[in-house]
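#data-curation
PF: Archiving a pair of folding outputs for the training set. Convention for this channel: one message per protein, sequence first, C-alpha coordinates after, nothing in between. First:
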Amino acid sequence: MVLIAEHTDEGALGLVLNRPSETTVGDAVPQLEELVDPEEHLFIGGPVQPSAVIVLAEFEDAVDAALIAFDDIGVLGAEASLEDAGAGVRSGRAFVGHAGWGPGQLDSELERGDWIREPARREDAFTSEPRELWTEVLTRKGGSYALIARMPPDPSVN
Protein backbone atom coordinates (compact mmCIF):
# COMPACT_ATOMS: atom_id res chain seq x y z
CA MET A 1 0.00 0.00 0.00
CA VAL A 2 1.73 3.17 -1.19
CA LEU A 3 0.85 6.70 -0.10
CA ILE A 4 1.87 9.16 -2.82
CA ALA A 5 3.30 12.17 -1.01
CA GLU A 6 4.30 14.10 -4.14
CA HIS A 7 3.39 13.74 -7.81
CA THR A 8 4.65 16.43 -10.21
CA ASP A 9 5.99 16.69 -13.75
CA GLU A 10 9.45 15.91 -12.32
CA GLY A 11 8.34 12.58 -10.83
CA ALA A 12 6.69 11.11 -7.77
CA LEU A 13 7.57 10.09 -4.22
CA GLY A 14 5.63 7.60 -2.13
CA LEU A 15 5.87 5.66 1.12
CA VAL A 16 4.90 2.01 1.60
CA LEU A 17 2.52 2.14 4.58
CA ASN A 18 2.14 -1.56 5.29
CA ARG A 19 5.72 -2.80 5.66
CA PRO A 20 6.96 -2.45 9.26
CA SER A 21 10.47 -3.67 9.98
CA GLU A 22 11.52 -5.66 13.04
CA THR A 23 13.52 -2.68 14.33
CA THR A 24 12.07 -0.02 16.60
CA VAL A 25 12.61 3.69 16.09
CA GLY A 26 14.29 3.88 19.50
CA ASP A 27 16.86 1.26 18.48
CA ALA A 28 17.53 2.60 14.98
CA VAL A 29 17.13 6.39 15.20
CA PRO A 30 16.79 7.47 18.84
CA GLN A 31 17.15 11.13 17.82
CA LEU A 32 13.59 10.92 16.39
CA GLU A 33 12.03 10.11 19.78
CA GLU A 34 10.62 13.67 19.95
CA LEU A 35 8.56 12.95 16.84
CA VAL A 36 7.92 9.21 16.82
CA ASP A 37 7.16 6.78 19.63
CA PRO A 38 10.48 4.99 20.27
CA GLU A 39 8.63 1.67 20.67
CA GLU A 40 7.03 1.97 17.22
CA HIS A 41 8.56 -0.06 14.43
CA LEU A 42 10.58 1.64 11.73
CA PHE A 43 8.82 1.15 8.37
CA ILE A 44 10.37 0.16 5.03
CA GLY A 45 9.19 3.05 2.85
CA GLY A 46 10.53 1.66 -0.43
CA PRO A 47 13.67 0.72 -2.31
CA VAL A 48 14.94 4.23 -3.09
CA GLN A 49 17.59 5.63 -0.71
CA PRO A 50 17.27 2.79 1.83
CA SER A 51 19.64 4.51 4.27
CA ALA A 52 17.61 7.75 4.37
CA VAL A 53 14.95 8.29 7.04
CA ILE A 54 11.68 10.07 6.21
CA VAL A 55 9.15 11.11 8.84
CA LEU A 56 5.50 11.09 7.82
CA ALA A 57 3.63 13.29 10.26
CA GLU A 58 0.30 14.78 11.19
CA PHE A 59 1.02 18.50 11.50
CA GLU A 60 -0.74 21.07 13.64
CA ASP A 61 -0.19 23.50 10.74
CA ALA A 62 0.21 21.99 7.26
CA VAL A 63 2.58 24.79 6.19
CA ASP A 64 5.23 23.20 8.44
CA ALA A 65 5.47 20.15 6.15
CA ALA A 66 8.01 19.90 3.35
CA LEU A 67 5.41 17.95 1.32
CA ILE A 68 1.69 17.53 2.00
CA ALA A 69 0.22 14.19 0.97
CA PHE A 70 -3.35 15.11 2.02
CA ASP A 71 -5.08 17.27 4.64
CA ASP A 72 -2.47 17.94 7.35
CA ILE A 73 -0.52 14.71 6.70
CA GLY A 74 2.86 15.19 5.10
CA VAL A 75 6.61 14.75 5.19
CA LEU A 76 8.91 16.54 7.57
CA GLY A 77 11.63 18.51 5.79
CA ALA A 78 15.21 17.30 6.09
CA GLU A 79 16.31 20.78 7.15
CA ALA A 80 13.78 21.00 10.02
CA SER A 81 15.25 21.07 13.49
CA LEU A 82 13.85 18.18 15.55
CA GLU A 83 13.13 20.41 18.55
CA ASP A 84 11.12 22.90 16.49
CA ALA A 85 9.39 20.19 14.46
CA GLY A 86 8.37 18.27 17.58
CA ALA A 87 6.27 21.20 18.74
CA GLY A 88 4.23 21.23 15.50
CA VAL A 89 3.80 17.48 15.01
CA ARG A 90 0.78 15.67 16.50
CA SER A 91 1.98 12.19 15.51
CA GLY A 92 4.69 10.74 13.32
CA ARG A 93 5.91 7.55 11.72
CA ALA A 94 9.47 6.91 10.53
CA PHE A 95 10.35 5.23 7.23
CA VAL A 96 13.65 4.12 5.77
CA GLY A 97 13.74 4.62 2.04
CA HIS A 98 10.87 5.56 -0.22
CA ALA A 99 9.23 4.62 -3.50
CA GLY A 100 10.09 6.84 -6.44
CA TRP A 101 9.19 7.36 -10.08
CA GLY A 102 10.88 9.45 -12.77
CA PRO A 103 9.16 12.07 -14.94
CA GLY A 104 6.01 10.59 -16.48
CA GLN A 105 6.67 7.09 -15.12
CA LEU A 106 3.83 6.99 -12.56
CA ASP A 107 1.50 8.71 -15.03
CA SER A 108 2.14 5.93 -17.55
CA GLU A 109 1.54 3.24 -14.93
CA LEU A 110 -1.74 4.90 -13.91
CA GLU A 111 -2.89 5.20 -17.55
CA ARG A 112 -2.21 1.47 -18.09
CA GLY A 113 -4.28 0.64 -15.01
CA ASP A 114 -1.31 -0.81 -13.13
CA TRP A 115 -2.48 0.66 -9.82
CA ILE A 116 -5.62 0.36 -7.71
CA ARG A 117 -6.37 3.90 -6.56
CA GLU A 118 -8.19 4.94 -3.41
CA PRO A 119 -8.03 8.25 -1.54
CA ALA A 120 -5.94 7.99 1.62
CA ARG A 121 -7.39 8.51 5.06
CA ARG A 122 -5.70 9.61 8.25
CA GLU A 123 -6.17 6.14 9.75
CA ASP A 124 -4.38 4.60 6.74
CA ALA A 125 -1.23 6.66 7.32
CA PHE A 126 -0.97 5.77 11.01
CA THR A 127 -2.76 2.44 11.26
CA SER A 128 -1.95 0.29 14.27
CA GLU A 129 -2.39 -2.80 12.06
CA PRO A 130 -0.20 -2.06 9.01
CA ARG A 131 -0.15 -5.65 7.78
CA GLU A 132 -3.96 -5.53 7.48
CA LEU A 133 -4.04 -2.21 5.61
CA TRP A 134 -4.22 -3.70 2.10
CA THR A 135 -7.27 -5.78 3.06
CA GLU A 136 -8.94 -2.86 4.85
CA VAL A 137 -8.55 -0.45 1.93
CA LEU A 138 -9.72 -2.96 -0.69
CA THR A 139 -12.73 -3.83 1.45
CA ARG A 140 -13.54 -0.12 1.84
CA LYS A 141 -13.27 0.32 -1.94
CA GLY A 142 -15.94 -2.36 -2.32
CA GLY A 143 -17.20 -4.34 -5.29
CA SER A 144 -14.74 -6.75 -6.87
CA TYR A 145 -11.95 -5.17 -4.81
CA ALA A 146 -13.60 -6.49 -1.65
CA LEU A 147 -13.46 -9.98 -3.19
CA ILE A 148 -9.73 -9.59 -3.84
CA ALA A 149 -9.28 -8.47 -0.22
CA ARG A 150 -10.64 -11.81 1.00
CA MET A 151 -8.46 -13.96 -1.23
CA PRO A 152 -5.85 -16.09 0.55
CA PRO A 153 -2.20 -15.11 -0.02
CA ASP A 154 -1.75 -18.21 -2.17
CA PRO A 155 -5.10 -19.02 -3.89
CA SER A 156 -3.74 -22.36 -5.14
CA VAL A 157 -3.91 -23.79 -1.60
CA ASN A 158 -7.58 -22.92 -1.23
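PF: Second:
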Amino acid sequence: MDEAGLADDNKKKELAAIVAPTPCLFICAKLEAELSELDEEDQKELLLSYGQSESALIKLTKELYKLLGLQSYLTAGKTEVRAWTIKQGSSAPQAAGAIHTDFERGFIAADVVSYPDLIEAGSLASAKSAGKVRTEGKTYIVKDDDIIEFKFNVSK
Protein backbone atom coordinates (compact mmCIF):
# COMPACT_ATOMS: atom_id res chain seq x y z
CA MET A 1 0.00 0.00 0.00
CA ASP A 2 1.09 3.61 -0.27
CA GLU A 3 2.49 5.67 2.60
CA ALA A 4 -0.90 7.23 3.41
CA GLY A 5 -2.48 3.78 3.66
CA LEU A 6 -0.10 2.79 6.45
CA ALA A 7 -1.72 5.40 8.70
CA ASP A 8 -5.30 4.62 7.60
CA ASP A 9 -6.55 2.21 10.28
CA ASN A 10 -10.04 2.04 8.74
CA LYS A 11 -8.64 0.97 5.36
CA LYS A 12 -6.40 -1.62 7.03
CA LYS A 13 -9.38 -3.02 8.99
CA GLU A 14 -11.43 -3.19 5.79
CA LEU A 15 -8.67 -5.05 3.94
CA ALA A 16 -7.97 -7.38 6.87
CA ALA A 17 -11.65 -8.32 7.02
CA ILE A 18 -11.46 -9.55 3.43
CA VAL A 19 -8.87 -12.21 4.29
CA ALA A 20 -9.92 -12.94 7.89
CA PRO A 21 -9.09 -15.09 9.79
CA THR A 22 -5.79 -15.22 7.90
CA PRO A 23 -3.24 -12.82 9.37
CA CYS A 24 -2.28 -9.94 7.13
CA LEU A 25 0.58 -7.48 6.99
CA PHE A 26 0.58 -4.07 5.37
CA ILE A 27 3.72 -3.13 3.46
CA CYS A 28 4.70 0.02 1.64
CA ALA A 29 7.36 -1.02 -0.89
CA LYS A 30 8.46 2.59 -1.41
CA LEU A 31 9.08 3.06 2.32
CA GLU A 32 10.97 -0.25 2.53
CA ALA A 33 13.17 0.80 -0.40
CA GLU A 34 13.94 4.11 1.31
CA LEU A 35 14.75 2.34 4.58
CA SER A 36 17.24 0.07 2.84
CA GLU A 37 19.36 3.10 1.92
CA LEU A 38 19.51 4.63 5.41
CA ASP A 39 21.59 4.02 8.50
CA GLU A 40 19.89 2.64 11.61
CA GLU A 41 19.24 6.00 13.28
CA ASP A 42 17.70 7.52 10.14
CA GLN A 43 15.61 4.36 9.64
CA LYS A 44 14.10 4.79 13.11
CA GLU A 45 13.32 8.44 12.41
CA LEU A 46 11.68 7.67 9.06
CA LEU A 47 9.62 4.82 10.51
CA LEU A 48 8.38 7.04 13.34
CA SER A 49 7.37 9.71 10.84
CA TYR A 50 5.01 7.13 9.30
CA GLY A 51 3.76 5.90 12.67
CA GLN A 52 5.64 2.62 12.40
CA SER A 53 7.84 1.03 15.06
CA GLU A 54 9.70 -1.42 12.83
CA SER A 55 10.22 -2.21 9.17
CA ALA A 56 7.88 -4.48 7.24
CA LEU A 57 10.78 -6.88 6.77
CA ILE A 58 11.05 -7.33 10.54
CA LYS A 59 7.26 -7.64 10.87
CA LEU A 60 7.13 -10.17 8.03
CA THR A 61 9.90 -12.27 9.57
CA LYS A 62 8.16 -12.30 12.97
CA GLU A 63 4.80 -13.23 11.42
CA LEU A 64 6.31 -16.03 9.32
CA TYR A 65 8.11 -17.48 12.34
CA LYS A 66 4.80 -17.42 14.25
CA LEU A 67 2.85 -19.05 11.41
CA LEU A 68 5.50 -21.74 10.95
CA GLY A 69 5.83 -22.40 14.70
CA LEU A 70 9.48 -21.36 14.79
CA GLN A 71 11.64 -19.37 17.16
CA SER A 72 15.31 -18.46 17.54
CA TYR A 73 17.84 -18.65 20.29
CA LEU A 74 21.39 -17.31 20.36
CA THR A 75 24.82 -18.67 21.04
CA ALA A 76 27.66 -16.29 21.75
CA GLY A 77 31.40 -16.74 21.85
CA LYS A 78 34.41 -14.47 21.83
CA THR A 79 34.36 -14.05 18.05
CA GLU A 80 30.80 -14.85 16.99
CA VAL A 81 27.16 -14.45 17.91
CA ARG A 82 24.78 -16.69 16.02
CA ALA A 83 21.03 -17.22 15.88
CA TRP A 84 19.66 -20.74 15.56
CA THR A 85 16.14 -21.49 14.33
CA ILE A 86 14.19 -24.20 16.13
CA LYS A 87 10.56 -25.28 16.51
CA GLN A 88 8.63 -23.61 19.32
CA GLY A 89 8.50 -25.87 22.34
CA SER A 90 11.91 -27.43 21.68
CA SER A 91 13.80 -28.78 24.68
CA ALA A 92 17.37 -27.74 25.40
CA PRO A 93 18.81 -30.97 23.93
CA GLN A 94 16.72 -30.51 20.77
CA ALA A 95 17.97 -26.93 20.47
CA ALA A 96 21.54 -28.19 20.89
CA GLY A 97 20.85 -30.59 18.03
CA ALA A 98 20.26 -27.62 15.73
CA ILE A 99 23.97 -26.89 16.08
CA HIS A 100 25.17 -30.49 15.74
CA THR A 101 23.64 -33.90 16.42
CA ASP A 102 26.55 -34.69 18.76
CA PHE A 103 25.48 -31.74 20.95
CA GLU A 104 22.04 -33.28 21.33
CA ARG A 105 23.35 -36.80 21.84
CA GLY A 106 25.88 -35.77 24.49
CA PHE A 107 23.80 -33.04 26.13
CA ILE A 108 24.63 -32.47 29.80
CA ALA A 109 23.23 -29.02 30.62
CA ALA A 110 22.71 -25.53 29.25
CA ASP A 111 23.79 -22.23 30.75
CA VAL A 112 21.00 -19.80 29.87
CA VAL A 113 20.58 -16.03 30.12
CA SER A 114 17.78 -14.01 28.54
CA TYR A 115 18.72 -11.35 26.01
CA PRO A 116 17.16 -8.51 28.07
CA ASP A 117 19.04 -9.65 31.19
CA LEU A 118 22.35 -9.77 29.30
CA ILE A 119 21.82 -6.31 27.79
CA GLU A 120 20.89 -4.89 31.20
CA ALA A 121 23.97 -6.48 32.82
CA GLY A 122 26.28 -5.27 30.05
CA SER A 123 28.37 -8.45 29.84
CA LEU A 124 28.12 -12.16 30.45
CA ALA A 125 30.40 -11.87 33.48
CA SER A 126 28.16 -9.18 35.00
CA ALA A 127 25.06 -11.26 34.25
CA LYS A 128 26.65 -14.24 36.00
CA SER A 129 27.60 -12.21 39.08
CA ALA A 130 24.04 -10.79 39.19
CA GLY A 131 22.63 -14.33 39.20
CA LYS A 132 20.98 -13.93 35.79
CA VAL A 133 22.71 -16.95 34.22
CA ARG A 134 21.11 -20.23 35.20
CA THR A 135 21.89 -23.87 34.46
CA GLU A 136 19.05 -25.81 32.85
CA GLY A 137 18.65 -29.52 32.21
CA LYS A 138 17.16 -31.82 29.59
CA THR A 139 13.54 -30.85 30.23
CA TYR A 140 14.08 -27.09 29.82
CA ILE A 141 11.97 -25.59 27.03
CA VAL A 142 13.97 -22.97 25.16
CA LYS A 143 12.52 -19.45 25.01
CA ASP A 144 12.75 -17.06 22.10
CA ASP A 145 15.11 -14.60 23.80
CA ASP A 146 17.50 -17.16 25.31
CA ILE A 147 21.25 -17.00 24.91
CA ILE A 148 22.63 -20.47 25.55
CA GLU A 149 25.97 -22.15 26.12
CA PHE A 150 25.66 -25.92 25.90
CA LYS A 151 27.65 -28.37 27.97
CA PHE A 152 27.99 -31.75 26.32
CA ASN A 153 30.19 -34.83 26.24
CA VAL A 154 30.34 -37.30 23.40
CA SER A 155 32.40 -40.39 23.98
CA LYS A 156 33.25 -42.69 21.10
